[in-house]
Amino acid sequence: MSPTAAPLDPAEVSAIIQQNVHREGPLLPILHDIQTAFGCVPDAARAPIADALNITEAELHGVISFYHDFRSKPAGARVLKICRAEACQAMGANAMSEKVLTALGLGWHETTPDGAITVEPIYCLGLCACAPAAMIDGRVKGRVTAEALLAEVAP
């Protein structure tokens, strides 16, 4: 069972847009609120957002794809973010990441078929002195190993 987005309610999308459209810099608040409501930024919500802000869907896609926290599909029940910054790489994060991804049968930005775990890269958690670092469900952890991460997230 893979994760599914909440059903798209066009009236709710419109309400979210209207709540934010008059703000200075409304795009990011709209995207955050849409993702909160639906678990992601569904493709069907893009045209109304672009129309309301008088931007192209290409411009909107550029913003969504630039910010790593926006998703076009909902995340799994658990989200594992592994730091990819230089300090973590220097302390073995690349090899550790590969072990985790291989064990879960995933690539970056992918979710297990059962919807249990999503793995994402993150580019600095501020734990450089405790590298390599990861974040599991919003909790940061330092000096992590592949085995420790897998033990925590794998069923």
TrEMBL record:
<dbReference type="InterPro" id="IPR041921">
    <property type="entry name" value="NuoE_N"/>
</dbReference>
<dbReference type="InterPro" id="IPR028431">
    <property type="entry name" value="NADP_DH_HndA-like"/>
</dbReference>
<keyword id="KW-0479">Metal-binding</keyword>
<feature type="binding site">
    <location>
        <position position="83"/>
    </location>
    <ligand>
        <name>[2Fe-2S] cluster</name>
    </ligand>
</feature>
<feature type="binding site">
    <location>
        <position position="88"/>
    </location>
    <ligand>
        <name>[2Fe-2S] cluster</name>
    </ligand>
</feature>
<feature type="binding site">
    <location>
        <position position="128"/>
    </location>
    <ligand>
        <name>[2Fe-2S] cluster</name>
    </ligand>
</feature>
<dbReference type="InterPro" id="IPR036249">
    <property type="entry name" value="Thioredoxin-like_sf"/>
</dbReference>
<keyword id="KW-0411">Iron-sulfur</keyword>
<protein>
    <submittedName>
        <fullName>Formate dehydrogenase subunit gamma</fullName>
    </submittedName>
</protein>
<dbReference type="InterPro" id="IPR002023">
    <property type="entry name" value="NuoE-like"/>
</dbReference>
<dbReference type="Pfam" id="PF01257">
    <property type="entry name" value="2Fe-2S_thioredx"/>
</dbReference>
<feature type="binding site">
    <location>
        <position position="124"/>
    </location>
    <ligand>
        <name>[2Fe-2S] cluster</name>
    </ligand>
</feature>
<keyword id="KW-0001">2Fe-2S</keyword>
<dbReference type="GO" id="GO:0046872">
    <property type="term" value="F:metal ion binding"/>
</dbReference>
<dbReference type="GO" id="GO:0016491">
    <property type="term" value="F:oxidoreductase activity"/>
</dbReference>
<dbReference type="GO" id="GO:0051537">
    <property type="term" value="F:2 iron, 2 sulfur cluster binding"/>
</dbReference>
<keyword id="KW-0408">Iron</keyword>
<comment type="similarity">
    <text>Belongs to the complex I 24 kDa subunit family.</text>
</comment>
